[in-house]
Each structure stands twice: as C-alpha cells, then as structure tokens.
TrEMBL record:
Organism: Undibacterium piscinae
Protein's name according to its UniProt entry: Alpha/beta hydrolase
Family statement: Belongs to the AB hydrolase superfamily.
Record has tRNA processing as a keyword: no
InterPro entries in UniProt: AB_hydrolase_1, AB_hydrolase_fold
One term of GO molecular function: hydrolase activity
Length: 273
C-alpha cells in the first residue's frame, strides 16, 4: 500500500526537520493553508488527510480501525515511517492534539515536540473534578443529528466551532467541509472524538508541548487548558487573543507567531526572518 497516496500526503519546504500539520474533525489539510506556508523556508512541511477525509483514498477506510482515535494515530505513525522522519514537530488541531499525543507515545524516537491547537483530552464533563464543556445529552443529540440530518448537524457544529461572526466565510467553509464527509464516516469519527477519554494518556508524553487556547471556545473551554497544563509535564499554556475553535483559520498571524516563538525557545532553527 502506498501510504503517501492513501493519505494524500503533500511535502514542501526547504528545511530538513519535519513539521507535520494534522487537521481536526470534519476537516482536511486545506485548513492549514494560511499557516503552513510560513514554515516552508526552514522546515520540511508535511500536510495530509486522514483516511476518510479530504482527498484520501476512501477504499482504504476500515470501520474497525477508525472507530477509535488510535486508528487515526496510526495514520500519522505510518506517514512518519514512510518518510523516515526524525525530530518531528507534530501540530494537531482540536481532536488531532490527542491523536498526535497517541502517535508520539508509540514512536517517541521520531518526535521532538508537540503543538496542540485548541486541545481537549475529554469533551464530556466528569463532575466534580473535570469540566470538558459538554453534557452527555449534548453529545448524544449531536450524534443523533448526524444520522438523521447531515445539513442540520453541519450547520449547527460549524456555528459552535467558528465563533467569529465577523468572519462568516469561516463558518461557511467549515459547514461545507462537514457536509463533504460520508455520513457513516462522519458519525464514526464523531463518536471516536466526542466519546474519547485520553486523560490517562497524558502521562505518556515527555516531550515539550505548546498548548494554544482561544477565548470563547465552546469546544475546549478554559478549564480544559488548565487541566492539560497541570497534567502534561513539559507543557506551555498560552491564552490566545483569538476567539472560537479554529485560530489557524480565523487568526493565522497570531497562530504563526506563537508557534514560531515556541519553536525558537525549544532550540529549533528560526522560522521567519
């Protein structure tokens, strides 16, 4: 099997060290288009689509494999192995933050740092000690809507995720991306995402990790960032000025600047002149 073709892998950039950008739920690699080019002068930039998303090979989709986040982590592992990457910087948006963590714990010898954009280890509230942002009824309703009304759930979730009313094109792009997913794949990925509990996996990461958290993020609220900061041993939590859940799309300049600062502080070559 050609892994690079399966995951629609795109390699660019002039550098030797790889930075891999992993997209979030219901999205594809195009969502990084405002951020990834800024790293091409000094890094090897890797973009890809998870199997079942974007321009990936749908014939390679395995319902059993992709019923949990570990199956998506295997995509990242196989891409890193196919390209024989080392000292990799993994950048994950939303659920891909935990997918990248799972991948890093399996191939620690290949990974240098993680950058988590709007991460969450658990979307469901678990009172009294953990606030994830969603009640079980919220998730059940969303999953039910995916089965019954794809345009309806896409519109609803895009509104929750975007949270930038001054940028209506953002919600429109997210809605179109959600609608483009095959409904059974969309539901299975949603179940794997919103029902996951990766809190116990946090102890397995011993790499420098940047946590980027937005204002007014309904998907990953403030308490989630604080929880991750406490439980990831080498983490740096930064509260962004950006709002919503997709700062790489809504506030790319700030996103680039914060990633740049973190990488420079962890002894990587400078990114921007």
């Amino acid at each position: 099997m050609d892994i690079l073709q399966r995951n629609n892998v795109r390699v660019s950039g002039k550098g030797s060290q790889a930075i891999v950008f992993a997209h979030g739920y219901g999205c594809d690699q195009a969502m990084w288009r405002k951020v990834s080019p800024s790293f091409e002068d000094n890094f090897k930039v890797i973009l890809f689509d998870y199997v079942g998303a974007g321009q990936s090979d749908l014939d390679s989709y395995d319902p059993d494999r992709y019923s949990s986040l570990s199956g998506y982590a295997q995509d990242i592992i196989e891409i890193c192995e196919a390209l024989d990457l080392s000292k990799v910087i993994l950048v994950g948006h939303s659920v891909s933050s935990m997918i990248c963590l799972l991948a890093a714990s399996k191939i620690p010898q290949r990974i240098a740092q993680l950058i988590m954009v709007c991460p969450s280890p658990r979307y469901l509230n678990d009172p009294p000690d953990y606030i994830g942002g969603f009640e079980a009824a919220d998730i059940e309703g969303l999953l039910d809507m995916i089965s019954r009304n794809q345009p309806g759930w896409a519109n609803y979730l895009a509104g929750v995720v975007a949270k930038n009313p001054d940028q209506p094109a953002l919600a429109q792009e997210l809605e179109a991306s959600f609608c483009a997913m095959d409904p059974p794949i969309a539901k299975r990925f949603a179940e794997a995402t919103f029902l996951a509990d990766n809190r116990a996996d946090l102890k397995n990461l011993d790499k420098p990790c940047l946590l980027l958290q937005c204002q007014h993020d309904s998907v990953a609220p403030l308490e989630v960032g604080e929880y991750l900061s406490k439980h990831l041993s080498q983490s740096t939590l930064v509260q962004m000025k950006a709002t919503g859940h997709c700062p790489h799309m809504s506030h790319p300049k700030e996103t680039i600047e914060l990633i740049t600062q973190f990488l420079e502080n962890t002894n990587n070559p400078p990114i921007l002149s």
